[in-house]
Amino acid sequence: MILIADGGSTKTTWCLVDAQGTRAFFNTEGYNPEFISTAGIMASLRQNLPAALVTGDVAEVHYYGASVVSATQVATVADAMGAVFGQARVSVGHDLLAAARALLGRVPGFAAILGTGTNSCIYDGARITHNVDSLGYFLGDEGSGAFIGKRLLRDYLRGLLPADLAEAFRAAYGLDRDEILDRLYNQPFPNRFVASFAKFASDHGDTSYCRALIAEVFEAFFQNIITKYPDYQSQTFNCVGSVAYHFRDALAQAAATHGMAVGKIIRSPIDDLVSYHLATAR
């Protein structure tokens, strides 16, 4: 059996492929090695893997994850996978490579992620050749769920939301200033926390405030990241992620404004990523 994983900061989507090519999907939490240790990943997997999955029967694990870049980050994840799936050959890569393989296969082009965080690249059909650093949710991540959430929280706490939206926000979340700041500065996974508020912008996407917010967020994404790629207008814009999918019309408008034709926008890369690996195995 082959196990393939697309790991974001918030959620990991897994696909188990048996000898007959049957696909079985399940989810666990995200395993961003900036925020979780090898022991933490192991504990989560042992608690959340499907009871019917016999880990010793897994021959290959292909894991792609957020922030799996440096040798130390790769080792954090690979050591956990190796311990849990003791008989498997384990490969660990960046979720940006997963996005490129899912969106483009073996064809060169541009690929991006807009989910909890932001990332993007130029891909030559086999590897990533150029990446404009998103700088993470502290300094950048323009266009991401975290970027949207930070803007919403800032305006809510400063009293800048329209009155009806502010009331809807209070009703939806019931959080006061101290609770919000505690979650941001004292609790684990603050990136997931701020990104969770992107749903509010989607749920209220018919309001002028949220339409303007999303337009500004994607304008920042293009101005600060996409336009920094040489000759970017010659590329087709391809993107994966929950934010890209739910706000795809506004994203397509931003791409058109900056002279990029839109190619493929998908919510999750897992189906196409599995197809990529099965084709490689043949």
Automatic annotation (TrEMBL):
Listed GO MF terms: kinase activity
Record keywords, A-Z: Kinase, Transferase
Keyword Kinase attached: yes
Protein name: N-acetylglucosamine kinase
Organism field: Hymenobacter coccineus
Taxonomic placement: Bacteria, Pseudomonadati, Bacteroidota, Cytophagia, Cytophagales
